[in-house]
Amino acid sequence: MYDFDVLVIGSGPGGQKAAIAAAKLERRVAIIERKDMIGGVCLNTGTIPSKTLREAIMYLTGLSQREMYGQSYHVKDEITIADLAARTNHVVGREMDVVRSQLTRNRVTMMTGTGTFVDPHTVEVESGHGEIRRATAEKIVIATGTRPARPGSVEFDERTVIDSDGIVHLERVPRSMVVAGAGVIGIEYASMFAALGTKVTVVEQRERMLEFCDVEVVEALKYHLRDLAVTFRFGETVSSVEARPDGAIATLLSGKKIPADTVMYSAGRQGASDMLNLDAAGLTADKRGRIAVDECYRTAVDHIYAVGDVIGFPALAATSMEQGRVAAHHACGEPLHQVAELYPIGIYSIPEISFVGRTEEQLTHDNVPFEVGISRYRELARGQIIGDSYGVLKLLVSLDTHNLLGVHVFGTGATELIHIGQAVMGCGGTIDYLVDAVFNYPTLAEAYKVAALDAMNKMRQIARFSVLAQGDDLPGTEPAVRALIAAINDGDRQLKGLSARPARVVRPWPRRSRPCLA
């Protein structure tokens, strides 16, 4: 009856995994994608290019080695866009080959063009050369992702006034840059260009940046960005941008004017659903272009699913992949477990940030008693070896159960280290495991043991004070602490028993031969 069992619109992380998962279940699968956009925005203008750009900057500037060799250390004195693009293009090309190979190997039919709905089971594909073909499918997965939101009052020229997608097409490294928006993307690019020596000004209408992150970690990041000469303008909004032949002038609502070579807008993302003709499928999107779904990623039309950034939060490549896999299995009648609620957040700023679980602010707001364990990279042998003296790992631990409630990492390898904490939390583990575990030495992972010991020592101190303040009876205290209290009190009783025995005569030391006890 249908050309395909499953038709996927979009080949980003969510679309890829949906198509491959359905193909593994022996369904007839096709995927629709625009020409030269295999891998979607993630591979072409988003995650992969930006993270590769960061890696190239870190290497060519020698930034990570300056702790050892001095602030003047550079691998290359004059870094050009060509230097950065060489590595980016290489990685993107290789990754694109991997995606094509995976889809071909799993016998997924590739349809090149832009897809729009004709009816709930039919999609029309426009190739861009006037060629139009139609495909019908029993189940359809929408994975069209997002594009940068653009204020209507700003005229983007792709050279002086750009959005985050335009960064990868710059012709030269700007001497100065205004970044409008201190979200994840804005802060990542602000730190990268600051490392290149660009004078960066970040304008944010809120009073702080990255509000979902740990306050101490954000403050540490701000300190390092200011050390790279980044200027922050919080509580301000860019009202207009006037392009000039040699740059632009950004005007703030407060009246301030900031001249810069380049102005980059990072004002959030807009769901790429407006070209789908959703009405024909019986669907609608909100004002941000997002499509509503249920826990199985079904839309209001039962046989149509939506995954990835186009459905909104959390809009991460990692979660999009899992959403695509879950949606495909459900569409094929083989449902999986839901996507885990416990997932890590990674921010590839310089230095990088990653966390999983709750923050101190959230725990305090929810009246959850917790203790904090801290480990600093400078106290680790590996931290000294790699020249990272500022990194920090923080564990938030339940006072009652010793369970990990949150893990926050700031510094080298943060996005890799976080998965140890995620695994312990996902298995319901406690810091007792981390205290007893043996880690390779020297490694940054050893920070988990150091932080766990720090938290444990603090909790033991709390237990000792509790004994002195409340005695034996502490209802509600967790078993390990009660056992410790009982042992301490038992020791006190034994001391009292000894003191009740007849006193033994002890002769004093002769005055001249009394030892020094100091």
What does this 3D model show about the protein?
The chain has helices at residues 13-24, 40-44, 47-61, 66-69, 81-105, 184-195, 215-227, 278-281, 317-331, 360-365, 381-386, 414-426, 431-436, 446-470, 479-500; strands spanning 4-9, 29-33, 109-112, 114-119, 122-126, 132-142, 146-148, 161-163, 176-180, 199-204, 231-234, 238-244, 247-252, 257-260, 262-265, 269-271, 304-306, 345-347, 353-357, 370-376, 392-398, 404-410. The protein is built from 15 helices and 22 strands. Helix content is 35%, strand content 22%. 41% of the residues are buried. The strands form 5 sheets. Strands 1, 2, 3, 4, 5, 6 and 17 form a 7-stranded mixed beta sheet that branches. It is of the alpha/beta class and 518 residues long. Strand 12 and strand 13 form a beta hairpin. It is globular and about 80 Å long.
